[in-house]
Amino acid sequence: MSEEIEKVGSVSQSRYEQIVAELRQVVEQQTRGQFTIGDRALEIEPMRARGGEIGAGPAWTVAESLRRLAEDIGLKANTIKTARWVASRWPKEHRQPGVSYTVHRILADIEDEHERFAAIKNPPTGKSRWTPDAANRRVGHQVENPETPQEKISAIHTLARDDRIAAAVTTDLLKRPQVAAKVPMEDKVRVVEEFTREETVATTAATGLLRRPDVAFKAMSDDTARFQVNLAQNERHRQAREDFESTSPVAPAVRHIDRTVEFFDLVTACHTFVAAAGRTVPGLRDRTLSEDEQAIVHSNVAKVRATLDWIEQAVDTGKVDMDEALARLLKGE
Fold first, then answer.
1. What is the domain partition of the chain in residue ranges?
2. Looking at residue 252, what is its pLDDT?
């Protein structure tokens, strides 16, 4: 059995090389053709200083002359303008045989002419000839086949210019834990801030985060955050009082009592605690807390029990002083 012949696509390697040689001649012809178009456009309208719009003849502007030339030869005006500009950047003696017109056009962006003329003679290290991607890298343009991380990032940004596409890509990427783990902390903070601009989203996120004891503890170490929480608690207390007056079955009886503000606040506090517990505790169903979480909850329950005993003592005896053990407990000592 004969050895399998190496192929490129559907042709053999030798046939592929023949095709490449043939097409390089075609590309060379196209390059000469493009430069011929540019040279003739330059002959009709030589390059002028920036802002020079008046053509050589009194009845023609540069744009009008090039537009007429484009119409007469069946090309777009922008094609003529580009060919004229590229031809002006590459005098005949500096045009390189074997280098495509596309590469000449890309490298024409190199501002310094000495650098430009030297660059086209020196392909990148390890390359035998210039490619469009190599030329784009040389002038800092986006490439068609990104290789480096930065090139791939630029390509993603280009593809995600549409807000809907960007949103879908962002959502998919953030679902990958290994991706999220590599995002710097300050960038994660900015992302969270952007995502929580909507009040409902911010409320849901903050509620979920503050249910984590370690997060809540660190958050309350911030003076501004603690102040805002206190304000929120006061507002919640006011709303709870209104809710108690409108919904509690004992509210009518309480209204007939010659009561003080402190009495009303105490009753409202109890009502609020019971209501909050009724909403929160069922959420623990089928959930096992960690040892640290259990310890924190037991510590707080102990404070609640001690506080309830203190309330009963104050109500029954009128004595509001707390003993040292209770004081230390409530301080968390």
1. 11-143, 146-176, 222-286, 288-333
2. 66
